[in-house]
Amino acid sequence: MPQQQTRCPSCAEPLDPEDDYCGACGLNVTGDVPSAAATPETATATAPAPGCVHCGSAELAADGYCESCGGAQPRPRDHQELTADGVAGVTDRGLRHHRNEDAFTVAATHLPGGEPAVLAVVCDGVSSSARPDEASATAVEAASAHLLTALQRGRRPDQAMREAIGEAARAVAELAKDGTRTPSGSQNAPACTYVSAISAAGLVTIGWVGDTRAYWIPDDRESAVAYRLTEDDSWAARVVAIGLMNEAEAYADPRAHAITGWLGADAEEIEPHTVSFTPHVPGVLLVCTDGLWNYAEAAADLAERVRPDARTEPLAAARELVDFAVTAGGHDNITVAVLPISPPAETTLRTVPLQSASAGAAPLHSSPTLQLHRPGSGS
Question: What are the start and end residues of every segment in region (Disordered) (predicted)?
Fold first, then answer.
């Protein structure tokens, strides 16, 4: 199991053994006192460009850090926004992590009959594993490529979803075999959690492994109810499900957020959960990492943060949710994708209950072992 890293004494950012400076706040963690000119506080708006965004120094290392103050420089994955035919997503590094270990994509395609289909894939790298940022990006790429191809060929969404999770799992597991070592020498298997959503021909299908989540948020929150569509693969969810503790006891336990399901070579049991339903009222699907839901865990609480016009302004809605999480503390990477759902007129009068395939789904690998990634893993 990946080991927990040490943390910055100032901002609690995870540190690698070879770090001289905290990548998030720039604190010298070696115990040496830096010169006044080398501290992040000396950054000014008139610093020559290009240069360090913290102190203005032109001495920038190839690894993205300032040689003078140690501050991390902006990276492309720090903040990204994507849109595709009405579905939108935003990811942000947050305030505490030195890099963004989340990854996501949104995409649109057509079924063989010409009906439009949109999808979103969101993955959260497990911070206590090696190369979590690569794990999440690899999973997103593998899953989205398979989903697009499968839907275009007429594959049923639930089948395509299970296959896509399998493809993502295999791709992440392969990372552990390429011989790449982290700067600290760790060879812990890269790992991430996973959630994705498909909206096609009036049907919504969700698939997940881990504690990345999906929520249904209706436009009319007075007469319809927001609810969570996924069940976490976590220690707390497991002990509640088997009756060892009630929910209050389980979530008060320090082990509550340890995950029991993830994608990676060290995941002995991968059970891809899927659920499908037909929305009968307009609304939006939210697929997100715990960097968001940690600040509004209950569906009703999260719904209060979703702007009323999210279905017609999904990018603005995603931005506001990310801003909410950053303002609330930004302790983790934050990613959210918003999929607008507008049921055809003939489906607004009927309700189809949730149908979960997870209970009868065969795991990709079978093992009775209960595996845990520790809390604070970033997933």
Answer: 358-379
**Exposed, middle or buried by CB within 10 Å (0-12, 13-18, 19+), for 49?**
exposed
Look at 9-18, 34-43, 170-179 and tell me which has the smallest mean pLDDT.
34-43
Same domain, 26 and 169: no
d(CA 64, CA 120) in angstroms, rounded, equals 29
> Does a cis peptide bond (omega within 30 degrees of 0) precede residue 40?
no
The whole domain housing 198 covers 79-179+187-346
Listed in sequence order, the residues at least 6 apart from 323 whose beta carbon sits closer than 8 Å to its beta carbon are none
Give 105-132 pLDDT, tens digit per residue.
999 999 999 999 999 999 999 988 999 9
**Residue 374: inside a domain, yes or no?**
no
Give the helix/strand (H/E) hosting 44.
none
Helices 157-175 & 132-152, crossing angle to 10 degrees? Answer: 150
Whether residues 262 and 284 share a domain: the answer is yes
CA gap 49, 179 in Å, rounded: 38
Total domains present in the chain: 2
Q: Which of 163, 255, 263 is nearest to 209 (CA)?
A: 263
Note whether 3 and 93 are same-domain residues.
no
Q: What is the enclosing helix (H) or strand (E) of 145?
A: helix 132-152
**CB within 8 Å of 364: residues ≥ 6 apart:** 165, 166, 169, 270, 271, 272
Neighbour order of strands in the sheet with 227-228? 79-84, 87-92, 334-341, 283-288, 213-218, 227-228
Look at residue 378 and tell me if it is in a domain. no
Question: 26 and 128, same structural domain?
Answer: no
Q: How far apart are CA 155 and CA 46, in angstroms?
A: 56
Residue 229: CATH number of its domain: 3.60.40.10
For 343-367, write each residue's pLDDT tens digit. 876 544 444 445 454 433 444 443 3
